[in-house]
Amino acid sequence: PQTAPARLMRLRDKAETLKAAGVSMLRVLRFGAALSAWDGVTFIERVLERALGAKQVVIGAGFRYGHDRGGDVALLRAEGARRGFGVDEVPPQELGGERVSSSRVRAALAAGHLDEARALLGRDYRISGRVIAGERLGRQLGFPTANIRLDRRVSPVGGIFAVRVSGAGPDRLPGVASVGTRPTVGGIEWLLEVHLFDFEGDLYRRRLAVDLIAKLRDEVHYSDLATMTAQMHRDASQARELLGIRG
Questions:
Q1: Which residues, at least 6 apart from 136, have a Cβ–Cβ distance to it below 8 Å?
Q2: pTM (2 d.p.)
Q3: Is the terminal CB of the chain with fewer CB neighbours within 10 Å at N or C?
């Protein structure tokens, strides 16, 4: 867990995205010591044959499974022929002559290259979650925020962003957001803080979907709140300009 790559999406977000794409049933295996010990044939037998009764299996190019990645496409096809299911291998998607992959998306996000991440994903990169109670520091500084706990050991993105937010009303609303640990106020956990422009209302416990449109800067430790507040005003002004919002 200490060296695992940053998660791009939470399980709930993955499930909702798959449902929107037309998937009617999702089965999730809990990965642990027992499952990790299964070889390729055991995985096929217990999951594809017994649990799912698979008739057709669709996998990505080069997909490996089973203990020590011992299972491959050839094994899957051979076992499928014996057990009565077919196998489709989907070729990789490419962009700019390179394979589209989660590692490539992570690298683009970590570098703040949201345009590249958008091209790879086919959409804006989104963080979603339920708004939790905060310390109301933003409200005291003139920037009330909706706070969303990321529930990640490491976030794939960090910094200050111009955003558009769904879930606060019938339309996507513009705003500015911070993704980080809030070093100026001694924070330690990853938190998404969103300030919606010209918005009044209570967002507590609402589920929001925050689309990152452009990165403004990295998170910085400030010596005092006054300096931080002045920078927040500059960030808000820049975000408004990037999003085409007057005010």
A1: 144
A2: 0.88
A3: N
